[in-house]
Amino acid sequence: MKEFFYGFFFSFLVLALIYIIFYKNLFIEKDIKTLKYLKSKIIERNITIIKKAEDNLTSKERLKIALAKSDFIIYPKKLTLIALKHEKKLEVWGGKNNKWIYITSYPFTAFSGRLGPKLKKGDRQIPEGIYGISYLNPNSKFHLSMKVDYPNSFDKKMAKKEKRTNLGGDIMIHGSNQTIGCIPIGDKKIEELYFLAKKVGIGNIKVIISPVDFRRMEVKIKNHKHKWFKDLYLDIKKEIKNYK
Question: What's the whole-model pTM score?
């Protein structure tokens, strides 16, 4: 009888222990899920608050935050803008202590044409090559704009060789979300970039416009009728790899 009692009592204890462990784990898992959910909501709320705060900042304040994150106490003395057509973004790099430091990126708000250099007026192409900035236009119909000095000497030389005329011009980096060969980055972003360009000075700005990010991928050219594409891309590739 005692053996039966002890056996029954032992079985009861085992079942009770299993019951407690099962439900304890169940409640723990439930608590963990609840905590994860609350954490995600807090993060989501904080991101929303930050975004709302950023929306209320001026272009100058947003720019200063980007510069501070890149360890720029003062404005850079030189600036390089790298427009990547395939990736549809404009990178901003500042010169500091003989080094190039990444500051920020602005996504294109529109795109026209396809990969490949601009050859003539009206082809809707964004040029490809190494350029400067000719002037800043505070009265642009696209909010603000910066004129890229297309065509450069290389563009003109290749056009003369192929007997092409009327290469087009007025290629801008500007606000808004429209383009027929320019680089639009939206009104808020052009305000930041325009302000920075004024501080740096247009004579200290380089613009690299590339078909793709040659630091991460290649462009294959086979039997192309414009043989000089290969030389152009080698020059761009060599230039862009200085920015890492």
Answer: 0.77
